[in-house]
Amino acid sequence: MATKDRLSGNEAVAFALKQINPDVFPAFPITPSTEIPQNFATYVSNGEVDTEFITVESEHSSMSAAIAASAAGARALTATSSCGLAYMFEPLYIASSDRLPLLLAVVNRALTGPININCDHSDSMGVRESGWIQLYAENNQEAYDNLVQAYRISENPAVRLPIMVCQDGFITSHAVQNIELLEDEAVKNFVGEYEPEHYLLNRDEVMAIGSYGVSDYYMEAKRAQAEAMLNVPSVVLEVGKDFEAISGRSYGFFEEYKMEDADRAVVVIGSAAGTGKDAVDMLRESGEKVGLIKVRMYRPFPAEALAGALKGVKAVAVLDRAESYTNCGGPLGADVMAALFRARSQALAVNYIYGLGGRDITVKDFAKVYEDLAEVVRNDSAGDTYRYLGVRE
Amino acid sequence: MDRAVELGARVTWREINEGTMVTGGGTSREFNTGEWAVIKPTFEADKCRQCLLCVPVCPDSSIPVKDMKRLDFDYDHCKGCGICVKSCPFGAIEMEGIE
Ligand code: SF4
Ligand code: SF4
Predict the structure, then answer these.
(1) Which of B9, B13, B25 is facing A223, going by the closest CB pair?
(2) Which of residues A186, A213, A247 is at a domain's end?
(3) SS3 content of chain A, % helix, strand, coil (to 5)
(4) B73: Cβ below 6 Å to ligand 2?
(5) Complex ipTM value
(6) Domain count, chain B
(7) Range of B58's domain?
(8) Is residue A393 situated within a structural domain?
(9) A28-54, pLDDT tens digit by residue?
(10) Model-level pTM?
(11) What is the pLDDT, as a whole number, of residue B29?
(12) Could you list the residue range(s) of the whole structural domain that residue A294 is in?
């Protein structure tokens, strides 16, 4: 029996972690993710988990300690935001290239500068090429559900790659919403015991991790790592299916909202999708054929499936909560447009940058995007494909 | 764990150890860093007094010792840095360009 509760996104993630009872949690606080290790530390003090909780002096160290713990054979994790994630840049690549199952709870926050503590996706988008799997949540429920599924994906022998579970800073992490929590036992059984195959603390096997890869080996190592990423999608679907069996909630690569007959669509990541759905509902009431796709799995990128979901669409707007400074849009925009191009899609696509540094996005903003798309269709031209939404002109 | 393939640039991406993990111990012996050397030291056995001062200074453990006596250089691993030349008080190690 699931229990109903009211929790913030951070509380939900900490609660999921309590139910998982991981082996090692090195932590360094940073807003807005601080509550995750803070709440978890309470579970540690109360003896509700038997996790080794290590307070370290930086995010470079928290990630490094988590990597070492994973290499030793432990189920490990850490949490961070913004500059903390940036400070982990180097060890992130070590975790993925060493093929270490590992969890990072990311609470998305803008990167400095100007200095800002509010939500956008520039932190995790900045590490999208680090070889980590990335899942994004719309709300506290999804943050909790993704967390419960994360280790099963990361530890799968065909994968063995680290995973980031992201939620929007403050909007999701601090807002208290209704949530349905699984029984402790159900989570425990779902996640299962971690049985690493090769690990440093195995006294029966001499091994080393983190070796130097000269030019003779480096490229082969990277190609093998890419293969592990290619194995991720089927594992994500498989784990999602099992999760649905215990929770009744289904998860895939992305959520399609009223897409069946949509001729205009928005593609977006994170909490803004909730606002977008409201706009879709509103416009649907007046007979407009609009839909929305919310990307859950951003790395690896589900290009083919996404192009398939956008097949019948005449115009699509991709919303990015991060700049790329490519002079042609954000990272999600680039990925979606490349996917459409590969699928030889005839859809006209535009890219909007929105919500930087915690700038709110409203139902009205979404309605304007759909209106812009109507104009794109009317003109049979995408016009300027690099646009800003919600900025003072 | 079996070593799928011996070290060598023939290993394919399908064969390479997951995460380039090194399996087994003492594997650096199989990596002939001596190939990097341009010039090599030579051991003048007749001048050697077996003081063993040269042995610990070698960064590549390329001066083998048996029964408290040093042997000739392990050229598979000597990188030709010349440190041992400087350490020998009896001129028993010679190397081009190093006094
Ligand atoms: S330092 Fe010179 S004399 Fe002493 S053991 Fe080495 S080679 Fe021989
Ligand atoms: S030249 Fe350098 S590497 Fe070679 S034996 Fe002497 S000290 Fe060792």
Answers:
(1) B13
(2) A247
(3) 40, 20, 40
(4) yes
(5) 0.87
(6) 1
(7) 32-97
(8) no
(9) 999 999 999 999 999 999 999 999 999
(10) 0.91
(11) 86
(12) 254-388
Which among A198, A216, A224 has CB closest to B13?
Answer: A224
Mean pLDDT for A148-172 is 98
Mean pLDDT of A104-115: 97
Query: What length is written for chain B?
Result: 99
Evaluate whether residue A52 is within a structural domain. Answer: yes
Buried b (16+ CB within 10 A) or exposed e, B76-92: ebbbbbbbbbebbeeeb
Nearest ligand (C-alpha, residue B54): 1
Kindly report, residue by residue over A295-352, the tens digit of the pLDDT: 999 999 999 999 999 999 999 999 999 999 999 999 999 999 999 999 999 999 999 9
Phi, psi of A201 (to 5 degrees): -85, 10
Cβ–ligand 2 contact at B80 (below 6 Å): yes
C-alpha B68 – ligand 2 centre gap (Å): 19
Rounded to whole angstroms, the Cα distance separating A42 from A17 reads 12
Whether B88 is in a domain gets the answer yes
Is residue A191's pLDDT more than 90? yes
pLDDT-flagged residues of chain B (< 70): 1-8
Does A297 fall in a domain?
Answer: yes
Measure in Å the smallest separation between the Cα of B31 and chain A Cα atoms.
11
Of A99, A207, A216, nearest to B22 by CB-CB distance is A207
Residue nearest to atom 2 of ligand 2 (CA): B81
**Is B49 inside a domain boundary?**
yes
- CB-based contact A221 B11, cutoff 8 Å: no
**For every residue of A26-81, which 3-state class applies, written as one string?**
EECCCCCCCHHHHHHHHHHHCCCCCCEEEECCCHHHHHHHHHHHHHHCCCEEEEEC
Summarize pLDDT for A341-379 with one digit per residue, the tens. 999 999 999 999 999 999 999 999 999 999 999 999 999
CA of B78 to the centre of ligand 2 (A): 5
- CATH of residue B42's domain is 3.30.70.20
Q: Is B25 part of a structural domain of the chain?
A: no
